[in-house]
């Protein structure tokens, strides 16, 4: 592969321009390694040094420079590292605070919504109770009359021969009166329809709540 042969040539430190000649110098003008032919050619008038000379200088200066980097630069960079860590921690703390706030708000809004629905359900219950009270009263009256008529008709039917004569007449009179009253009871006669007022829910309150939730994020 081309890339691996290039890497190999680089590893051998040979010149690309001059038949793989050994690179023995460094041109400071062009900032590249050069071979003996390069030196005679276009780099002849440039500022160049032999790699041997450069290395002699590097071996003298580099250890000192590396020590300098370790003692005075790396501590600062490590400090910067910990400042990054601090930023990451701070962001996460901010998230946790926000999460706690939002969960608090969530609970508060759920409670408010529950209360709105509970209030509405109670209101409907009361309205229904008021409307059905009349039906219940009439039903109770009619039930009494039905029970009375049941007893009375059973008695007049079964005991007609043994009852005192006056009692028979009184009982019959009372039976007919009660029967007439009972027959006047008609469930259809009473128009007690439960009216649930417009807006089953307090929609404005719900909309206000949604607005408040939006605003929570605008305040930031
Ligand atoms: Zn060359
Ligand atoms: Zn050059």
From TrEMBL:
Entry-linked SUPFAM superfamilies: B-box zinc-binding domain (SSF57845)
Check the record and name the InterPro entries matching this protein: TRIM45/56/19-like, Znf_B-box
Pfam families in UniProt: zf-B_box (PF00643)
Query: Transmembrane segments in this chain: where?
Result: none
Which residues are in the B box-type domain? 15-51
**Mind listing the UniProt keywords for this protein, alphabetically?**
Metal-binding, Zinc, Zinc-finger
Q: Which SMART domains does its entry note?
A: BBOX
Name this polypeptide is given: B box-type domain-containing protein
From which source organism is this entry? Pinctada imbricata (Atlantic pearl-oyster)
């Amino acid at each position: 592969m081309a890339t691996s042969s290039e890497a190999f040539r680089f590893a051998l430190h040979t010149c690309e321009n001059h038949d793989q000649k050994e690179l023995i110098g460094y041109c400071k003008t062009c900032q590249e390694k050069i071979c003996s032919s390069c030196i005679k050619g276009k780099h002849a008038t440039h500022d160049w040094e032999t790699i041997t000379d450069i290395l002699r200088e590097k071996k003298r200066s580099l250890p000192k420079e590396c020590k300098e980097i370790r003692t005075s630069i790396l501590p600062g960079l490590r400090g910067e590292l910990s400042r990054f860590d601090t930023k990451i921690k701070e962001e996460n703390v901010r998230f946790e605070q926000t999460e706690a706030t939002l969960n608090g708000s969530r609970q508060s809004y759920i409670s408010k919504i529950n209360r709105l629905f509970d209030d509405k359900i109670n209101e409907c219950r009361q309205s229904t109770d008021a409307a059905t009270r009349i039906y219940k009263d009439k039903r109770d009256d009619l039930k009494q009359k039905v029970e009375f008529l049941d007893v009375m008709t059973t008695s007049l039917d079964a005991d007609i021969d043994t009852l005192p004569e006056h009692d028979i007449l009184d009982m019959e009179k009372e039976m007919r009166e009660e029967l007439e009253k009972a027959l006047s009871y008609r469930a259809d006669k009473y128009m007690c329809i439960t009216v649930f007022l417009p807006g089953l829910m307090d929609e404005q309150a719900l909309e206000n709540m949604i607005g408040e939730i939006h605003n929570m994020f605008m305040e930031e």
